[in-house]
Amino acid sequence: MLNIKWAALLLFTGFVLVSCDPADTNDPDMDVDSYESYRYELWKLLKGKGYDPDFVGTQVDDGSYETLNGESFDADHEGIGGLEADQLLGNLNDVLPNIDKPDMILLCIGGNDLLAEEPVQGVIDTIALILERINQFDENIVVFIEQIAPGNNELMTDEFQAAILEFNEKIALLASSWVGSQNIYSVDMFTGFTEDLLADEVHYNEEGAIEIAARYADAINLVFDPGAVKILPLGDSRVEGAHP
């Protein structure tokens, strides 16, 4: 059940954000088992907080997951490696009508666009169209949108650092000034996120997945009361992942 008193909250301005979707993740030969998504760690955290999370999406990863109290991990999601914001926008009309309606969407997108040196404002404008499309589908869906985590030190040149910082600032502004009827919250994945949380240039290792999951769990706990919730993890390869 949505906790209405937090409906205007802008979340976690003190954390570090990382890019969600590296441009080279559209390689069909990439070993997705070499890095992890936050989804499994989030599922465990939410279970421990009294939630009954049901992940939804048209994708299912083939990772190996331990059970929790005899219950198998729900591996449904909508993360696609290499996805850019305009591609995600184009997919929504096929995805949303063909899954159980989510109570919330966890949106991680924009990193591949930045790696492709797309203008930051253009990416933000496309993300605004994504939010509008979700609103048109169902105005009651709550969206948590990532201020993306950084890449490793080698990737984070001065130019790329500046692009991510501008992107994340604009994401926070987009969420806080949103005039649509649905609730939008930005979640800071950048602040304090360090290179030792990455498996490669941009993807999470197990510790990184735990960190991202904890930030999402804190955000969800501020907005939703414990109970049954349907969650659509939506975005790029950082959403996709797989447990080795």
Run of helices and strands: HEEEHEHHEHEHEH
Specify the overall morphology: globular
Q: Hey, roughly how much beta strand do the residues contain?
A: 5-15%
Computed structural class: alpha/beta
Give the strand tally.
Answer: 7
- Cα-atom radius of gyration: 16 Å
What would the keywords be for this entry?
244 residues; alpha/beta; 7-stranded mixed beta sheet; 7 strands
Task: Describe this protein's structure.
It is a single chain. This protein is an alpha/beta fold and 244 residues long. Helices cover 35% and strands 14% of the residues. Helix 5 links the parallel strand 5 (142-147) and strand 6. Mean pLDDT is 88; it is low at 1-32.
Topology of helices and strands:
Blueprint: H1 39-48, E1 52-55, E2 59-60, E3 76-79, H2 85-95, E4 104-108, H3 111-115, H4 120-137, E5 142-147, H5 158-176, E6 184-188, H6 206-223, E7 228-235, H7 237-240
Parallel strand pairs: 1-7, 3-7, 4-5, 4-7, 5-6
Antiparallel strand pairs: 2-3
What does this entry show, briefly?
The protein is α/β, with parallel strands linked by helices.
